[in-house]
């Protein structure tokens, strides 16, 4: 469980750094760009993966999709944290698990038991309540709520792609990261370049240290999560439940207690329902 706890810490700390960086006026486009370069270097140093030749068309298309989606969804995450806070962004990210669930049900024809169906229903209620806000308090920040939806859809799509690669058994996870991280770096390089040239963003040398910090934590989050699954290979549902619930709980505590993010009673109920939904879905995996 040590790997799970450390992975949760890394995941939430990434959100904290992105929120602090935005408050200090640093460009998260540049930070995200540097982050992927750092993550790629760490992958090479620690895992020493080998470049595969002659990948199938389906595997290549999935890897390219991940190269495109990872930096774009990371930007959605940064914007969601800026406009809606860490609490709601973490919930949106963790609730994204229901997209691959629907993929499994409708595309892969997986059978759902009662626990999983109840969990899915509670998840929809949790998403609605977590994002709910009173109309009379709507302002320019609240109008950016759609970034939460983009985070949910984006991370759900990424999860589906990773599951497809895993089912192909053509690449190990470390080899996927070895291919995806430089691609994500290239995409984010063009995005940050656009904001530097067209939007006249300034480059601050301190952005490099922030990018290194985010990159190390992002790499640590992924690596520790993999190690947790390896250490608890006979109980993957334990890793799944602990990770998702841990991020929501720690992220909520940080957002509410440290950043003083405003939540109404319906938002709090949404947090409780999201935890209950994840618990039921995890239990449904054990009951299979």
TrEMBL record:
- What top-level branch of life does the organism fall under? Bacteria
Question: Keywords, A to Z?
Answer: Membrane, Transmembrane, Transmembrane helix
For this protein, the record's SUPFAM superfamilies field holds:
Multidrug resistance efflux transporter EmrE
Q: Does the keyword Cell division apply?
A: no
- Keyword Transmembrane helix set for record: yes
Instruction: Tell me the ranges covered by the EamA domain, including all copies.
Output: 2-131, 147-282
Entry's transmembrane regions = 6-21, 28-47, 59-79, 114-133, 145-164, 176-195, 207-226, 238-259, 266-286
Q: Which InterPro entries match?
A: EamA_dom (IPR000620), EmrE-like (IPR037185)
One Pfam entry name: EamA
Q: What is this protein called?
A: EamA family transporter
The organism named in the record is: Flavobacterium nakdongensis
